[in-house]
Specification:
The complex is a heterodimer of chains A (about 120) and B (about 110). With about 120 residues, chain A is an all-beta fold. Chain A starts with a strand and ends with a strand. In chain A, strands 2, 4, 5, 6, 9, 10 and 11 form a 7-stranded mixed β-sheet that branches. Chain A has a 4-stranded antiparallel β-sheet with strand order 1-3-8-7, with no helix packed on it. Chain A is about 0% helix and about 50% strand. In chain B, about 35% of the residues are buried. In chain B, a hairpin with a 5-residue loop joins strand 10 and strand 11. Chain B has about 110 residues and is mainly β. Classes of the chains: A mainly beta (about 120), B mainly beta (about 110). At the A-B interface, strand 4, strand 5, strand 9 and strand 10 of A face strand 5, strand 6, strand 10 and strand 11 of B.
Chain lengths: ~120, ~110
C-alpha cells in the first residue's frame, strides 16, 4: 500500500493564481482531511470529509475549496492564492472509528509558497 | 471548542535519560482521546501513541508511555532512554466528534549527546 500520497511536493505560485493540491489514499478510509502548518505552529484543519459526496469546513476554510467524488481522492483547490496561504499542507485519512482505530495517517506534505 | 495546550515550546534532554512532554486539554466531552505525533526535521507526521479517556491503564508503546491524569485533563508523554533520533517536534492532538483533530502548538525536543 502506498498509504496517503500528495502531489506536488513543492509549489511556487504568484498572488492571484489558482491551483489544486492532490491527495489520494489506498486504504479505503472513509475520513479524509486537509491541514495547514505554519512555522512554529501545530496543524490547523482546513476542510474534511466523512465520505464520498460529503465535505465540511474546518477551522481555517477561507480561500480553499474541496470536493470528494470518490473514496480515494480529496483534492484541495486554492481559488486565488494569497501570500497568507504560504504554508505546508498535509492531507490525512482514517477510518471513521473512535479510539486508537481512528488514527489518522498523514501524507508527506506539500510546501507551498505564494509570492 | 476544544483547546489543546502544550506549554513547553522547547525541551532539552541528555541522551539515555527520560523526558516528559506536557499536554493539557479543555473539552466538555465525557469520552475523548489524545494522539501523540512526532514530526522530525524531514517534515512527516508519525503516530506515536494514543490514550482514551476510558482506558484504565496508561498507554505504552515501546519507549513511549503516557501519564494520564483525567482529573487534571492532562496526558503527558514520557520518552525513556532518549536517543539522538528522538530530536523532533512533538504534537498532541484531540479528535472531535467527526474525527477532526485539534493540535497543540508542539514541543521541540532536542536530545544532547
Amino acid at each position: 500500500n502506498a498509504g496517503v500520497t500528495q502531489t506536488p511536493k513543492f509549489q511556487v505560485l504568484k498572488t492571484g493564481q489558482s491551483m489544486t493540491l492532490q491527495c489520494a489514499q489506498d486504504m479505503n478510509h472513509e475520513y479524509m482531511s486537509w491541514y495547514r502548518q505554519d512555522p512554529g505552529m501545530g496543524l490547523r484543519l482546513i476542510h474534511y470529509s466523512v465520505g464520498a459526496g460529503i465535505t465540511d469546513q474546518g477551522e481555517v476554510p477561507n480561500g480553499y475549496n474541496v470536493s470528494r467524488s470518490t473514496t480515494e481522492d480529496f483534492p484541495l483547490r486554492l481559488l486565488s492564492a494569497a501570500p497568507s496561504q504560504t504554508s505546508v499542507y498535509f492531507c490525512a485519512s482514517s477510518r471513521l472509528r473512535g479510539g486508537r482505530s481512528g488514527e489518522q495517517f498523514f501524507g508527506p506534505g506539500t510546501r507551498l509558497t505564494v509570492l | 471548542a476544544q483547546k489543546i495546550t502544550q506549554t513547553q515550546p522547547g525541551m532539552f534532554v541528555q541522551e539515555k535519560e527520560a523526558v516528559t512532554l506536557d499536554c493539557t486539554y479543555d473539552t466538555s466531552d465525557q469520552s475523548y482521546g489524545l494522539f501523540w505525533y512526532k514530526q522530525p526535521s524531514s517534515g512527516e507526521m508519525i503516530f506515536l501513541i494514543y490514550q482514551g479517556s476510558y482506558d484504565e491503564q496508561n498507554a505504552t508503546e515501546g519507549r513511549y508511555s503516557l501519564n494520564f491524569q483525567k482529573a487534571r485533563k492532562s496526558t503527558n508523554l514520557v520518552i525513556s532512554a532518549s536517543q539522538l533520533g528522538d530530536s523532533a517536534m512533538y504534537f498532541c492532538a484531540n479528535p472531535g466528534s467527526a474525527r477532526q483533530l485539534t493540535f497543540g502548538s508542539g514541543t521541540q525536543l532536542t536530545v544532547l549527546p
